[in-house]
Write a structure and sequence with these properties.
α1 (about 10-25) runs antiparallel to α2 (about 40-50). A 4-stranded antiparallel beta sheet has the order 2-3-1-4, with helices on one face. It has a single domain, classed as Alpha-Beta Plaits (2-Layer Sandwich), CATH 3.30.70.240. The chain is built from 2 helices and 4 strands, in the order βαββαβ. The chain starts with a strand and ends in a 22-residue tail after the last strand. It is α+β, with helices and mostly antiparallel strands.
Length: about 90
């Protein structure tokens, strides 16, 4: 499935969350990630994220779609991190 993950984490925990999310998804903008994940990998990511965050102060929002082709993405202004498929 295609996932867009957005988080709002207190500053002292942002670095840990950033590092965690980069292991699973592509960073596209401050606190915003996107990419293909299996349901199992998404559950794994969210379980680890819950150990980093404090639910009373922080939040994570996950948008899911079966496939990226069902989403239209429009970037206005400078794109923070362009995605390349070249290794």
């Amino acid at each position: 499935m295609y996932v867009i993950l957005v988080y709002d984490i207190e500053e002292k925990r942002v670095g840990k969350m950033l590092k965690l999310c980069r292991q699973y998804l592509n960073w596209i903008q401050n606190s915003v990630f996107e990419g293909e994940l299996t349901e199992v990998k998404l559950k794994e990511l969210l379980a680890k994220a819950k150990t980093v965050m404090k639910p009373e102060a922080d939040s994570i929002i996950v948008f899911k779609s079966r496939d990226e082709k069902w989403l239209e993405k429009q970037v206005i202004g400078m794109e923070k991190n362009t995605l390349d498929n070249i290794l």
